[in-house]
Protein backbone atom coordinates (compact mmCIF):
# COMPACT_ATOMS: atom_id res chain seq x y z
CA UNK A 1 0.00 0.00 0.00
CA UNK A 2 2.80 2.43 0.92
CA UNK A 3 4.67 1.59 -2.28
CA UNK A 4 1.60 2.24 -4.44
CA UNK A 5 0.92 5.50 -2.59
CA UNK A 6 4.54 6.64 -2.95
CA UNK A 7 4.60 5.96 -6.70
CA UNK A 8 1.28 7.79 -7.10
CA UNK A 9 2.58 10.83 -5.18
CA UNK A 10 5.80 10.88 -7.20
CA UNK A 11 4.00 10.63 -10.55
CA UNK A 12 1.45 13.25 -9.50
CA UNK A 13 4.27 15.60 -8.55
CA UNK A 14 6.03 14.78 -11.82
CA UNK A 15 2.94 15.81 -13.77
CA UNK A 16 2.65 19.02 -11.71
CA UNK A 17 6.29 19.88 -12.46
CA UNK A 18 5.68 19.24 -16.16
CA UNK A 19 2.74 21.66 -16.07
CA UNK A 20 4.57 24.37 -14.11
CA UNK A 21 4.05 26.91 -16.88
CA UNK A 22 0.26 26.44 -16.83
CA UNK A 23 -0.19 25.99 -13.08
CA UNK A 24 1.95 29.06 -12.30
CA UNK A 25 3.46 27.15 -9.37
CA UNK A 26 7.21 26.88 -8.87
CA UNK A 27 8.65 23.48 -9.74
CA UNK A 28 11.02 23.87 -6.77
CA UNK A 29 8.17 24.00 -4.25
CA UNK A 30 6.61 20.89 -5.80
CA UNK A 31 9.92 18.99 -5.74
CA UNK A 32 10.52 19.84 -2.08
CA UNK A 33 6.99 18.84 -1.09
CA UNK A 34 7.28 15.50 -2.90
CA UNK A 35 10.60 14.82 -1.20
CA UNK A 36 9.35 15.48 2.33
CA UNK A 37 6.06 13.59 1.87
CA UNK A 38 7.85 10.53 0.47
CA UNK A 39 10.33 10.49 3.35
CA UNK A 40 7.43 10.78 5.81
CA UNK A 41 6.01 7.65 4.20
CA UNK A 42 9.36 5.96 4.77
CA UNK A 43 9.25 6.93 8.46
CA UNK A 44 5.61 5.95 9.03
CA UNK A 45 6.10 2.71 7.13
CA UNK A 46 9.01 1.81 9.41
CA UNK A 47 10.89 0.36 6.47
CA UNK A 48 14.39 -0.44 7.67
CA UNK A 49 16.94 1.93 9.14
CA UNK A 50 15.65 5.36 8.14
CA UNK A 51 18.64 7.15 9.64
CA UNK A 52 21.07 5.12 7.55
CA UNK A 53 18.98 5.65 4.40
CA UNK A 54 18.85 9.41 4.96
CA UNK A 55 22.58 9.56 5.59
CA UNK A 56 23.22 7.64 2.37
CA UNK A 57 20.92 9.86 0.30
CA UNK A 58 22.23 13.04 1.93
CA UNK A 59 25.81 11.99 1.19
CA UNK A 60 25.06 11.49 -2.50
CA UNK A 61 23.14 14.76 -2.73
CA UNK A 62 25.91 16.63 -0.93
CA UNK A 63 28.42 15.37 -3.48
CA UNK A 64 26.27 16.40 -6.44
CA UNK A 65 25.42 19.83 -5.02
CA UNK A 66 29.08 20.58 -4.21
CA UNK A 67 30.01 19.38 -7.69
CA UNK A 68 27.40 21.68 -9.24
CA UNK A 69 28.36 24.68 -7.10
CA UNK A 70 32.04 24.24 -7.95
CA UNK A 71 31.40 23.70 -11.67
CA UNK A 72 29.01 26.66 -11.91
CA UNK A 73 31.48 28.91 -10.07
CA UNK A 74 34.31 27.89 -12.40
CA UNK A 75 32.06 28.59 -15.39
CA UNK A 76 31.23 32.04 -13.96
CA UNK A 77 34.98 32.70 -13.62
CA UNK A 78 35.51 31.64 -17.24
CA UNK A 79 32.70 33.98 -18.25
CA UNK A 80 34.18 36.90 -16.31
CA UNK A 81 37.65 36.35 -17.75
CA UNK A 82 36.29 36.39 -21.27
CA UNK A 83 36.68 32.83 -22.56
CA UNK A 84 33.17 32.52 -23.96
CA UNK A 85 33.28 35.98 -25.54
CA UNK A 86 36.63 35.02 -27.07
CA UNK A 87 35.19 31.80 -28.53
CA UNK A 88 32.14 33.72 -29.73
CA UNK A 89 34.19 36.26 -31.68
CA UNK A 90 36.42 33.55 -33.17
CA UNK A 91 33.43 31.60 -34.49
CA UNK A 92 31.75 34.82 -35.58
CA UNK A 93 34.70 35.59 -37.87
CA UNK A 94 34.04 32.32 -39.73
CA UNK A 95 30.73 33.77 -40.96
CA UNK A 96 28.87 30.55 -40.22
CA UNK A 97 25.11 30.34 -40.34
CA UNK A 98 23.01 29.51 -37.30
CA UNK A 99 22.64 25.86 -38.30
CA UNK A 100 26.39 25.44 -38.75
CA UNK A 101 26.99 27.04 -35.34
CA UNK A 102 24.35 24.73 -33.87
CA UNK A 103 26.00 21.58 -35.25
CA UNK A 104 29.51 22.65 -34.19
CA UNK A 105 28.45 23.42 -30.61
CA UNK A 106 26.45 20.21 -30.17
CA UNK A 107 29.20 18.06 -31.71
CA UNK A 108 31.79 19.56 -29.37
CA UNK A 109 29.43 18.87 -26.46
CA UNK A 110 29.21 15.23 -27.58
CA UNK A 111 33.00 14.86 -27.72
CA UNK A 112 33.81 16.77 -24.54
CA UNK A 113 31.23 14.80 -22.56
CA UNK A 114 33.27 11.64 -23.03
CA UNK A 115 36.39 13.18 -21.55
CA UNK A 116 34.87 15.42 -18.89
CA UNK A 117 31.41 14.21 -17.89
CA UNK A 118 27.94 14.95 -19.17
CA UNK A 119 27.01 17.29 -16.31
CA UNK A 120 30.06 19.58 -16.55
CA UNK A 121 29.84 19.56 -20.34
CA UNK A 122 26.20 20.66 -20.23
CA UNK A 123 26.97 23.58 -17.91
CA UNK A 124 29.87 24.80 -20.09
CA UNK A 125 28.19 24.43 -23.47
CA UNK A 126 24.93 26.02 -22.37
CA UNK A 127 26.99 29.12 -21.60
CA UNK A 128 28.52 28.96 -25.07
CA UNK A 129 25.14 28.41 -26.74
CA UNK A 130 23.68 31.42 -24.94
CA UNK A 131 26.25 33.60 -26.74
CA UNK A 132 25.01 32.50 -30.17
CA UNK A 133 21.30 31.85 -29.79
CA UNK A 134 18.23 33.38 -28.25
CA UNK A 135 14.52 32.65 -28.15
CA UNK A 136 13.42 29.35 -29.67
CA UNK A 137 16.84 28.71 -31.19
CA UNK A 138 18.34 28.75 -27.69
CA UNK A 139 15.72 26.27 -26.47
CA UNK A 140 16.47 23.96 -29.40
CA UNK A 141 20.22 24.17 -28.93
CA UNK A 142 19.93 23.64 -25.15
CA UNK A 143 17.77 20.56 -25.74
CA UNK A 144 20.23 19.20 -28.29
CA UNK A 145 23.16 19.82 -25.93
CA UNK A 146 21.45 17.74 -23.22
CA UNK A 147 21.02 14.81 -25.63
CA UNK A 148 24.54 15.21 -27.05
CA UNK A 149 26.10 15.29 -23.58
CA UNK A 150 24.20 12.19 -22.49
CA UNK A 151 25.12 10.37 -25.70
CA UNK A 152 28.78 11.34 -25.36
CA UNK A 153 28.86 10.21 -21.75
CA UNK A 154 27.46 6.81 -22.69
CA UNK A 155 30.53 5.64 -24.64
CA UNK A 156 33.12 6.65 -22.05
CA UNK A 157 33.86 4.99 -18.69
CA UNK A 158 34.02 8.44 -17.07
CA UNK A 159 31.34 10.25 -19.05
CA UNK A 160 28.34 9.26 -16.94
CA UNK A 161 27.85 8.00 -13.38
CA UNK A 162 26.14 4.79 -14.51
CA UNK A 163 28.87 4.02 -17.06
CA UNK A 164 31.47 4.53 -14.34
CA UNK A 165 29.50 2.24 -12.00
CA UNK A 166 29.48 -0.57 -14.57
CA UNK A 167 33.15 -0.04 -15.40
CA UNK A 168 34.21 -0.15 -11.74
CA UNK A 169 32.06 -3.27 -11.28
CA UNK A 170 34.21 -4.92 -14.00
CA UNK A 171 31.26 -5.43 -16.33
CA UNK A 172 33.34 -4.17 -19.24
CA UNK A 173 36.77 -2.64 -19.85
CA UNK A 174 37.39 0.94 -20.92
CA UNK A 175 38.36 -0.32 -24.38
CA UNK A 176 35.13 -2.32 -24.68
CA UNK A 177 32.84 0.59 -23.87
CA UNK A 178 34.73 2.85 -26.28
CA UNK A 179 34.68 0.39 -29.18
CA UNK A 180 31.17 -1.03 -28.73
CA UNK A 181 29.24 2.04 -27.60
CA UNK A 182 30.84 4.71 -29.80
CA UNK A 183 28.91 4.02 -33.01
CA UNK A 184 25.52 3.66 -31.26
CA UNK A 185 26.20 6.86 -29.28
CA UNK A 186 27.31 8.67 -32.43
CA UNK A 187 24.11 7.51 -34.12
CA UNK A 188 22.06 8.90 -31.23
CA UNK A 189 23.89 12.21 -31.51
CA UNK A 190 23.53 12.61 -35.28
CA UNK A 191 19.91 11.46 -35.40
CA UNK A 192 18.74 13.76 -32.60
CA UNK A 193 20.84 16.73 -33.74
CA UNK A 194 19.67 16.47 -37.35
CA UNK A 195 16.03 16.20 -36.31
CA UNK A 196 16.21 19.14 -33.89
CA UNK A 197 18.52 21.13 -36.17
CA UNK A 198 15.91 21.23 -38.93
CA UNK A 199 13.93 23.69 -36.79
CA UNK A 200 16.81 26.12 -36.28
CA UNK A 201 15.74 29.41 -37.83
CA UNK A 202 18.51 31.18 -39.76
CA UNK A 203 17.24 34.69 -39.25
CA UNK A 204 18.84 35.59 -35.93
CA UNK A 205 21.30 38.46 -36.00
CA UNK A 206 24.64 37.81 -34.33
CA UNK A 207 25.89 40.74 -32.34
CA UNK A 208 28.68 42.53 -34.16
CA UNK A 209 30.91 42.81 -31.16
CA UNK A 210 34.39 41.56 -30.38
CA UNK A 211 35.93 40.52 -27.11
CA UNK A 212 38.77 42.49 -25.68
CA UNK A 213 42.21 40.88 -26.07
CA UNK A 214 43.07 38.47 -23.28
CA UNK A 215 46.28 39.12 -21.38
CA UNK A 216 48.65 36.63 -19.77
CA UNK A 217 46.89 36.67 -16.40
CA UNK A 218 43.51 36.08 -18.07
CA UNK A 219 44.84 33.13 -20.05
CA UNK A 220 46.53 31.74 -16.96
CA UNK A 221 43.30 31.84 -14.92
CA UNK A 222 41.33 30.40 -17.85
CA UNK A 223 43.85 27.56 -18.23
CA UNK A 224 43.61 26.74 -14.52
CA UNK A 225 39.81 26.67 -14.71
CA UNK A 226 39.82 24.38 -17.74
CA UNK A 227 42.37 22.10 -16.09
CA UNK A 228 40.11 21.93 -13.03
CA UNK A 229 37.42 20.20 -15.06
CA UNK A 230 39.78 17.29 -15.72
CA UNK A 231 40.77 16.84 -12.07
CA UNK A 232 37.67 14.75 -11.16
CA UNK A 233 39.07 12.03 -13.42
CA UNK A 234 42.25 11.81 -11.36
CA UNK A 235 40.22 11.80 -8.14
CA UNK A 236 38.36 8.74 -9.44
CA UNK A 237 41.64 6.87 -9.75
CA UNK A 238 42.51 8.01 -6.22
CA UNK A 239 39.16 6.55 -5.01
CA UNK A 240 37.89 9.99 -4.01
CA UNK A 241 34.56 11.52 -5.10
CA UNK A 242 34.77 13.64 -8.28
CA UNK A 243 33.83 16.85 -6.48
CA UNK A 244 37.20 16.76 -4.70
CA UNK A 245 38.79 17.48 -8.07
CA UNK A 246 36.65 20.55 -8.69
CA UNK A 247 37.18 21.77 -5.13
CA UNK A 248 40.94 21.44 -5.61
CA UNK A 249 40.79 23.33 -8.89
CA UNK A 250 38.54 26.05 -7.46
CA UNK A 251 40.85 26.45 -4.47
CA UNK A 252 43.91 26.85 -6.70
CA UNK A 253 42.14 29.35 -8.98
CA UNK A 254 40.91 31.32 -5.98
CA UNK A 255 44.42 31.47 -4.48
CA UNK A 256 46.00 32.52 -7.78
CA UNK A 257 43.43 35.28 -8.33
CA UNK A 258 43.89 36.63 -4.79
CA UNK A 259 47.69 36.65 -5.16
CA UNK A 260 47.44 38.29 -8.59
CA UNK A 261 45.16 41.00 -7.20
CA UNK A 262 47.84 41.88 -4.65
CA UNK A 263 50.45 42.25 -7.38
CA UNK A 264 48.20 43.94 -9.96
CA UNK A 265 45.47 45.87 -8.10
CA UNK A 266 44.81 48.01 -11.19
CA UNK A 267 43.83 45.07 -13.42
CA UNK A 268 40.22 45.26 -14.64
CA UNK A 269 39.75 41.48 -14.79
CA UNK A 270 41.06 41.04 -11.26
CA UNK A 271 38.84 43.75 -9.82
CA UNK A 272 36.08 41.24 -9.02
CA UNK A 273 36.72 38.85 -6.15
CA UNK A 274 35.80 35.18 -6.38
CA UNK A 275 33.21 35.67 -3.62
CA UNK A 276 31.12 37.73 -6.06
CA UNK A 277 30.63 34.72 -8.32
CA UNK A 278 28.92 32.76 -5.55
CA UNK A 279 26.22 35.44 -5.41
CA UNK A 280 25.21 34.56 -8.97
CA UNK A 281 24.31 30.99 -7.99
CA UNK A 282 20.64 30.18 -8.50
CA UNK A 283 19.73 28.83 -5.05
CA UNK A 284 16.13 28.01 -6.06
CA UNK A 285 17.44 25.76 -8.82
CA UNK A 286 19.69 23.94 -6.38
CA UNK A 287 16.72 23.37 -4.08
CA UNK A 288 14.84 21.87 -7.03
CA UNK A 289 17.77 19.58 -7.71
CA UNK A 290 17.90 18.57 -4.02
CA UNK A 291 14.14 17.94 -3.92
CA UNK A 292 14.19 15.63 -6.94
CA UNK A 293 17.17 13.67 -5.60
CA UNK A 294 15.61 13.32 -2.14
CA UNK A 295 12.39 12.04 -3.71
CA UNK A 296 14.32 9.47 -5.75
CA UNK A 297 16.23 8.47 -2.61
CA UNK A 298 12.95 7.82 -0.80
CA UNK A 299 11.68 5.66 -3.67
CA UNK A 300 14.91 3.71 -3.60
CA UNK A 301 14.65 3.10 0.15
CA UNK A 302 11.02 2.06 -0.25
CA UNK A 303 12.24 -0.60 -2.67
CA UNK A 304 10.33 0.77 -5.65
CA UNK A 305 13.30 0.96 -8.03
CA UNK A 306 14.67 -2.45 -7.07
CA UNK A 307 11.19 -3.94 -7.52
CA UNK A 308 11.03 -2.42 -11.00
CA UNK A 309 14.40 -3.93 -11.94
CA UNK A 310 13.35 -7.36 -10.61
CA UNK A 311 10.13 -7.15 -12.58
CA UNK A 312 11.97 -6.17 -15.76
CA UNK A 313 14.68 -8.83 -15.65
CA UNK A 314 13.01 -11.71 -13.73
CA UNK A 315 15.02 -14.08 -11.52
CA UNK A 316 17.07 -15.89 -14.20
CA UNK A 317 16.82 -13.81 -17.38
CA UNK A 318 17.70 -15.17 -20.82
CA UNK A 319 19.84 -13.19 -23.26
CA UNK A 320 16.71 -11.97 -25.05
CA UNK A 321 15.15 -10.97 -21.74
CA UNK A 322 18.33 -9.10 -20.76
CA UNK A 323 18.31 -7.18 -24.04
CA UNK A 324 14.67 -6.18 -23.68
CA UNK A 325 15.20 -5.54 -19.98
CA UNK A 326 18.07 -3.17 -20.73
CA UNK A 327 15.88 -1.31 -23.21
CA UNK A 328 13.05 -1.12 -20.66
CA UNK A 329 15.40 0.18 -17.95
CA UNK A 330 16.59 2.81 -20.43
CA UNK A 331 13.02 3.94 -21.03
CA UNK A 332 12.31 4.04 -17.30
CA UNK A 333 15.41 6.21 -16.85
CA UNK A 334 13.40 9.03 -18.38
CA UNK A 335 11.25 9.05 -15.23
CA UNK A 336 13.27 7.39 -12.48
CA UNK A 337 16.90 7.87 -11.48
CA UNK A 338 19.09 5.58 -13.58
CA UNK A 339 21.68 5.10 -10.82
CA UNK A 340 19.61 2.86 -8.48
CA UNK A 341 18.08 1.10 -11.50
CA UNK A 342 21.58 0.31 -12.76
CA UNK A 343 22.75 -0.75 -9.30
CA UNK A 344 19.81 -3.16 -9.02
CA UNK A 345 20.55 -4.55 -12.49
CA UNK A 346 24.18 -5.21 -11.48
CA UNK A 347 22.92 -7.34 -8.58
CA UNK A 348 20.20 -9.14 -10.54
CA UNK A 349 21.75 -9.86 -13.95
CA UNK A 350 24.48 -12.52 -13.84
CA UNK A 351 25.65 -12.45 -17.45
CA UNK A 352 29.37 -12.10 -18.15
CA UNK A 353 28.83 -10.89 -21.71
CA UNK A 354 30.29 -7.34 -21.74
CA UNK A 355 28.26 -6.41 -24.82
CA UNK A 356 25.02 -6.73 -22.85
CA UNK A 357 26.40 -4.45 -20.15
CA UNK A 358 27.44 -1.97 -22.85
CA UNK A 359 23.81 -1.96 -24.00
CA UNK A 360 22.69 -1.17 -20.45
CA UNK A 361 25.18 1.72 -20.25
CA UNK A 362 23.90 3.01 -23.58
CA UNK A 363 20.20 2.76 -22.77
CA UNK A 364 20.30 4.25 -19.26
CA UNK A 365 22.64 7.01 -20.44
CA UNK A 366 20.61 7.97 -23.49
CA UNK A 367 17.20 7.05 -22.05
CA UNK A 368 17.43 9.92 -19.59
CA UNK A 369 17.19 12.29 -22.56
CA UNK A 370 13.64 11.20 -23.41
CA UNK A 371 12.27 13.62 -20.80
CA UNK A 372 13.91 16.74 -19.40
CA UNK A 373 13.88 15.55 -15.78
CA UNK A 374 15.29 12.15 -16.75
CA UNK A 375 18.94 13.10 -16.34
CA UNK A 376 21.14 15.43 -14.32
CA UNK A 377 22.14 17.40 -17.47
CA UNK A 378 18.44 17.89 -18.23
CA UNK A 379 17.67 19.13 -14.74
CA UNK A 380 20.60 21.54 -14.74
CA UNK A 381 19.56 22.77 -18.21
CA UNK A 382 16.17 23.70 -16.72
CA UNK A 383 17.93 25.79 -14.10
CA UNK A 384 20.30 27.58 -16.49
CA UNK A 385 17.88 28.22 -19.36
CA UNK A 386 14.74 29.35 -17.55
CA UNK A 387 12.55 29.18 -20.66
CA UNK A 388 13.38 25.49 -21.13
CA UNK A 389 10.40 24.02 -19.31
CA UNK A 390 9.33 20.39 -19.22
CA UNK A 391 6.67 21.10 -21.84
CA UNK A 392 9.04 22.99 -24.13
CA UNK A 393 11.54 20.13 -24.09
CA UNK A 394 8.73 17.63 -24.68
CA UNK A 395 7.73 19.47 -27.86
CA UNK A 396 11.26 20.10 -29.10
CA UNK A 397 13.32 17.07 -28.16
CA UNK A 398 11.39 14.10 -26.78
CA UNK A 399 10.39 12.64 -30.16
CA UNK A 400 13.86 13.18 -31.72
CA UNK A 401 15.41 11.68 -28.58
CA UNK A 402 13.10 8.65 -28.80
CA UNK A 403 13.88 8.08 -32.48
CA UNK A 404 17.60 8.47 -31.79
CA UNK A 405 17.27 6.08 -28.83
CA UNK A 406 15.73 3.41 -31.09
CA UNK A 407 18.33 3.94 -33.83
CA UNK A 408 21.18 3.70 -31.32
CA UNK A 409 19.85 0.38 -30.03
CA UNK A 410 19.47 -0.85 -33.62
CA UNK A 411 23.13 -0.03 -34.37
CA UNK A 412 24.17 -1.83 -31.17
CA UNK A 413 22.12 -4.86 -32.23
CA UNK A 414 23.79 -4.94 -35.66
CA UNK A 415 27.20 -4.84 -33.98
CA UNK A 416 26.19 -7.56 -31.51
CA UNK A 417 24.68 -9.81 -34.19
CA UNK A 418 27.35 -9.48 -36.88
CA UNK A 419 30.50 -8.61 -34.95
CA UNK A 420 29.83 -10.52 -31.74
Walk me through this protein's architecture.
- This protein is mainly alpha-helical and 420 residues long.
- It contains 21 helices and no strands.
Protein traits:
antiporter activity; 0% strand; globular; mainly alpha
Question: How is this structure best summarized?
Answer:
This protein has helices at 2-18, 20-23, 27-45, 50-80, 83-92, 98-115, 118-132, 135-154, 161-168, 174-197, 216-228, 231-237, 243-263, 274-278, 283-301, 304-313, 319-332, 338-348, 354-367, 376-384, 390-419. The protein has one domain.
Indicate the topology:
Blueprint: H1 2-18, H2 20-23, H3 27-45, H4 50-80, H5 83-92, H6 98-115, H7 118-132, H8 135-154, H9 161-168, H10 174-197, H11 216-228, H12 231-237, H13 243-263, H14 274-278, H15 283-301, H16 304-313, H17 319-332, H18 338-348, H19 354-367, H20 376-384, H21 390-419
Could you report the average pLDDT, rounded to the nearest whole number? 84
Give, in order, the helices and strands. HHHHHHHHHHHHHHHHHHHHH
What's the helical proportion of residues? over 70%
Total helices: the number is 21
How would you describe the shape? globular
